Amino acid sequence: MNQRSSNLLDEALGLDQVIEPWPLRGRVVAIEDQVDTSGSFVLHHLLKRSLSPNSSNVAIFIAFSQPFSHYDRILRKLGCNLVSQRDNSRFFFFDMLKLQCPGITPEGGLIALYGKIHKTISALPEISWKNVSIIIDDLSLMEVAANGSSDYVLDFLQYCRTLTSEFDCSLITLNHEDIYSNEDRPTFLIQMEYLADILIKAEPLATGLATDVHGQLTVSNKGWNKVSNFHFKVKENVVECFYPGRSRG
Amino acid sequence: MAESICRALRDGALEGELAPALTIKDSVASPFALQVFSHVLSQLFSSILAGKSQSRGLVVVSFSRSPSFYLDLLKNKGTDIASSNNQIQILDCYSDPLGWKDQLAGSRNFTALSNEVLVSSTAIVFREVKHMDKLYNSIIELGKGLVGGGKIRFSIAIDSVDEMLRHAPVSSVARFLSNLRSHDQISSIFWLLHSDLHEARVTAVLEYLSSIVASLEPSHQLANGQRGDLENFSLIKHNSKKGKFHVRFKKRNGRVRVMSEEVHIELSGINFTSLPSEGAINQGLVPKVQFSLQLSEKERIDKANVVLPFEHQGNGKPIQIYDGRRSLVDGKHERPFAAVENVQTNENCGSGEIIYYRDSDDEMPDSDEDPDDDLDI
């Protein structure tokens, strides 16, 4: 596996040096993508990094989008075995596929989900708390599960943020920009941009689709006061990130 | 100029008048309101501690950040929080704003963590953010706990009103803020607002409630639509570190004062500098070429003084269309000059001139006839 090629993304996020303690601890990372440039690969990459064998990091994955088998297949190609990680209590998978929050009301369901996450983290040894990543795939489907109420979802995200303060864990979310782009004020999207400490946007190139370059990533890291931009190409086993003009074709 | 804001909050309210209120607003293009808010908060608290302000205590109503954020912020500015317990209190609307933890504790084995207790001497958790009345009462109670009853005043900082507007209608929030401003123990109040999260009328309501409005704007406006170009990226990068800071003061005598500064965001904090002239801002963006694209001051004045030939001067004289011929100006004979025309000066009192060399004096003056009339098509 080519470690070097993902380094631009790792560098922009501070993941190119040590993995433990988890560099993203206490931070909220928001990924925004579009139909033409899916940002799922960033999610998979962060999941792979957090479950790196050199660390004892834990990932709690809240899946509204795909079943476990889907992520298992993809992460296997990236060199990570989710089944054994799950067995070792390093990977917790919350299957929300039925698009129904458990509970009588959508709000009740989200409260219960929050409670479940809180309980899962509390059960871990205190030393591991800051190495926990809560990953949500994705927010637009969570809104569907909450019967379209972005208010309940924002309340839920607010409580997840308190988890990052309480446990020093990290929160990583994925949302689709073009779902909200028709609105005059895409409030939900803008709220996430304010909430995020690190904003990662996956967009097509200004020149359109291409075979050698699938899109561009813009990483705004508020903590470092730094903005990076580079191109990416998603391959079978790896994602290549490179500065514009440097594609290896 | 940020100094003026801090001074206004420090001076506080006059007897029988509403307390000064500051709105700090921004948008995603220049999201620096938090840095400005933190700066104002730490400045105000320093003056409270030093006894230099009307206000004797500060109540921070925190929705968006945990209480420890503010305690750490003040600690980093050199304030000794432990000994200033009786001058700052934080109403914690962040940790459990809707009472979910209470609900969960009732039904399952949900244990709140003990580290929440660590900040309890300076922070009180508030669990009913949808109820503006209860929020109002809690704030007043906290403030009175700091300064006692009577005539001593305290200040309030709200981070942010966006969360309040999510939980309550704008009329309730407006009434809440207005009541706080009218309370005779409130010295000053300031809040943070992200303008792009709300309709324009909501932002307008909050601005009407404020005596000072500080807004942050990007240094460079991005082109609409295409965010993909490299040029746009360099603008984004530029905008992430710098911005324009506009402040509008509403004075008691009815006058409005508007000031602008430039704001720089560094890792260590925020810096305010005076706005450079327009030319300097654009210097970086103007391509370097071998001829001068700028005007000097004298050139600018001369240009402004030139009376354009078609301009109606409003002084009763008939309009004379100048076509470069001295003869027309005289209005009498035509003087056949074959050579290049003399420099013709327009009648004006300034030093601006239009220097126009006519090719040949033999040309007929422009007539009304259509020159294409003689075409035989």
TrEMBL record, chain A:
Name its GO BP terms in alphabetical order: tRNA wobble uridine modification
Q: In which pathway does it act?
A: tRNA modification; 5-methoxycarbonylmethyl-2-thiouridine-tRNA biosynthesis
Q: Which Gene Ontology CC terms are recorded?
A: elongator holoenzyme complex
What top-level branch of life does the organism fall under?
A: Eukaryota
Per the UniProt entry, the signal peptide is: none
Q: Which family does it belong to?
A: Belongs to the ELP6 family.
Protein name as it appears in the record: Elongator complex protein 6
Origin organism of this chain? Answer: Gossypium barbadense (Sea Island cotton)
Automatic annotation (TrEMBL), chain B:
Q: In which pathway does it act?
A: tRNA modification; 5-methoxycarbonylmethyl-2-thiouridine-tRNA biosynthesis
Keywords on this record? Answer: Cytoplasm, Nucleus, tRNA processing
Say yes or no: keyword Secreted present: no
Q: Which organism is it from?
A: Gossypium darwinii (Darwin's cotton)
GO cellular component annotations of the record: cytosol; elongator holoenzyme complex; nucleus
Q: Does the keyword Aminoacyl-tRNA synthetase apply?
A: no
Highest taxon above the source species: Eukaryota
Task: Give the range the annotation lists for the signal sequence.
Answer: none
Q: Where in the cell is it found?
A: Cytoplasm; Nucleus
Q: What is this protein called?
A: Elongator complex protein 5
One GO term under biological process is:
tRNA wobble uridine modification
Alphabetized InterPro entries for the sequence:
Elp5 (IPR019519)
Q: Which Pfam families match?
A: Elong_Iki1
Q: Which family does it belong to?
A: Belongs to the ELP5 family.
Q: Name one GO molecular function term.
A: tRNA binding
- What residue spans carry the region label Disordered? 357-377
